[in-house]
C-alpha cells in the first residue's frame, strides 16, 4: 500500500508470508554414497514459515536530497521454535552539480536458512538447514557508501565501499559430519561471527544499439568460531580477493540481441586435512606437487590455509523475441558457456600421507566443465 499524506512525503506499508520445505541430506546423498552405508537415516523434510510486515517512508526535504527510513518486522516458525526480529534500514541520497550523487545506506537483515559448508567430500558441498533453538537465525549489519558520476551522455561511473558484520553464521565443527548421525545433526554444527569489506567499481557505456560494462570488486571476507581453528579468524572459502567482469550487449534488430560476458576471479580458499603438509608458498599448483620434508610445515586444524587457482569464464548468448500475442510473449535463448576455460576449479582431492621421516602432499585439481552449450525457451503470460 502506497500513501502520500503530505507534499514530498510518501509512506509504503506491506506484508508478506512464505512456507518452505527442504530436505538437506536428500539433495546430496547419491546412490553410490548410500551404498557405502555412511548414512544411517535420511533427515526428514524440514518445514518453516515466515511472516513479515514492513513500513518504508520517503522524505524529500530538498530537490537534491531525500531520506528513506524503513523497518521490517519478521516472525519465524520452525516446529516448536519461534523467533521475532526487527530489522531497520536507512537510505540517503544527495545530488550536486547535476551529474554527481553521494549515497549512504544501512541495513540489518536476518537469514533463517543456514548455509553449512564442507570441503572434504571431494567436491565443494553446501548444506542448507533451517534456524533452530540451537542455531538462531544469522544476522548481518551492512553499511555502504556510494558515489555516482555521469561523465558524459553515454558514460557513467559508480564507486561503492561497504562493510558487513555477521553473527550466528554456521559451519561444521572440526570433525563434524551429518552423514554419520543425521539424528543429531545440530550437534555437529557451530555458530560464529563473520566480517566482509571491500570496494566495487562500475563503468558503464550505453549507446543506442549497444552497451558495455566493466566491473571490478576488491574484497575481504573472514570467519571466526570460538572452538574452531583455536578461535583465530580465518578466510572464508568464498574470499575471492579480485573479481573482474566485462560485459557487452548489442541489439542486432528490435527482436534479436547478442551479449558476451567474461569473468575472472581469484580462487576460493580451502582447508587441508588435519595433519597434512602444506607448501610454504601458500598456493596450490594445478599439477601434482610433492613437498620437500625439510621445507614442509605440518598443519593441524588450520582451516582454509590455501587458495585454489584463479578461474576464468566466458559466456556468449543470443536471444530472439518471437512474435507476441495480446495474452503472452515468448523468446528463445541459446549460447555457449565457459568458452575459454582455464582452471575452473569445482572439484579437487587431496590424498595424503605422513610418515616418520617423510611428509608429502599430492593435490589433484579436476575440471568438471570446459565447454557447455545451452538453449532455452521462455513463455510469459
Please give a structural write-up.
With 381 residues, the protein is mainly beta. It has a domain at 247-381. The chain has 1 helix and 26 strands. The chain has one helix at residues 31-35; strands at 2-6, 9-22, 46-62, 65-78, 81-96, 100-111, 113-118, 125-130, 138-150, 155-172, 189-206, 210-224, 234-235, 242-253, 256-265, 269-270, 276-278, 297-299, 306-307, 311-321, 329-337, 345-349, 352-354, 359-361, 364-367, 372-380. The protein has a 16-stranded antiparallel sheet that branches. Strands 7-8 form a two-stranded antiparallel sheet. A hairpin with a 3-residue loop joins strand 11 and strand 12 (210-224). The two termini are 25 Å apart.
Structural class by SSE content: mainly beta
Mean pLDDT: 77
The assembly state of the depicted protein chains is single chain
- Termini, distance in Å? 25 Å
Strand content: over 45%
Strand/helix succession: EEHEEEEEEEEEEEEEEEEEEEEEEEE
The shape, in one word, is globular
Gyration radius from CA atoms, angstroms: 25 Å
Percent of residues in helices comes to under 10%
Amino acid at each position: 500500500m502506497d500513501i502520500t499524506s503530505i507534499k514530498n512525503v510518501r509512506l509504503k506499508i506491506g506484508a508478506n508470508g512464505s512456507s518452505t520445505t527442504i530436505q538437506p541430506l536428500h539433495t546430496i546423498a547419491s546412490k553410490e554414497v548410500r551404498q557405502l552405508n555412511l548414512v544411517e537415516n535420511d533427515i526428514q523434510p524440514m518445514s518453516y514459515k515466515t511472516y513479515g510486515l514492513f513500513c518504508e517512508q520517503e522524505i524529500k526535504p530538498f530537490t537534491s536530497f531525500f531520506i528513506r527510513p524503513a523497518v521490517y518486522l519478521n516472525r519465524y516458525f520452525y516446529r516448536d521454535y519461534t523467533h521475532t526480529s526487527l530489522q531497520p534500514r536507512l537510505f540517503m541520497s544527495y545530488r550536486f552539480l547535476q551529474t554527481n550523487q553521494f549515497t549512504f545506506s544501512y541495513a540489518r537483515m536476518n537469514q533463517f536458512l543456514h548455509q553449512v559448508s564442507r570441503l572434504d567430500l571431494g567436491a565443494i558441498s553446501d548444506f542448507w538447514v533451517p534456524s533452530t533453538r540451537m542455531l538462531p537465525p544469522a544476522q548481518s549489519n551492512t553499511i555502504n557508501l556510494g558515489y555516482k558520476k555521469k561523465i558524459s551522455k553515454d558514460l557513467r561511473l559508480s564507486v561503492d565501499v561497504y562493510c558487513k558484520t555477521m553473527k550466528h553464521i554456521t559451519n561444521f565443527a572440526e570433525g563434524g559430519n551429518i552423514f554419520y548421525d543425521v539424528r543429531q545433526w545440530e550437534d555437529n554444527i557451530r555458530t560464529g561471527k563473520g566480517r566482509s569489506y571491500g570496494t566495487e567499481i562500475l563503468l558503464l557505456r550505453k549507446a543506442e544499439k549497444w552497451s558495455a560494462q566493466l566491473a571490478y570488486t576488491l574484497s575481504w571476507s573472514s570467519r571466526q568460531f570460538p572452538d574452531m581453528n583455536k578461535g583465530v579468524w580465518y578466510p572464508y572459502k568464498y574470499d575471492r580477493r579480485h573479481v573482474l567482469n566485462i560485459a557487452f550487449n548489442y541489439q542486432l534488430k528490435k527482436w534479436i540481441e547478442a551479449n558476451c560476458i567474461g569473468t575472472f576471479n581469484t580462487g576460493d580458499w580451502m582447508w587441508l586435512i588435519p595433519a597434512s603438509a602444506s607448501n610454504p608458498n601458500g598456493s596450490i599448483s594445478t599439477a601434482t606437487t610433492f613437498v620437500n620434508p625439510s621445507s614442509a610445515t605440518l598443519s593441524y586444524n588450520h582451516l582454509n590455509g590455501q587458495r585454489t587457482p584463479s578461474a576464468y569464464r566466458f559466456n556468449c548468448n543470443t536471444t530472439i523475441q518471437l512474435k507476441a500475442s495480446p495474452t503472452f510473449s515468448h523468446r528463445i535463448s541459446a549460447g555457449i558457456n565457459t568458452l575459454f576455460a582455464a582452471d575452473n576449479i569445482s572439484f579437487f582431492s587431496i590424498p595424503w600421507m605422513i610418515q616418520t621421516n617423510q611428509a608429502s602432499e599430492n593435490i589433484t585439481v579436476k575440471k568438471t566443465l570446459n565447454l557447455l552449450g545451452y538453449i532455452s525457451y521462455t513463455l510469459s503470460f
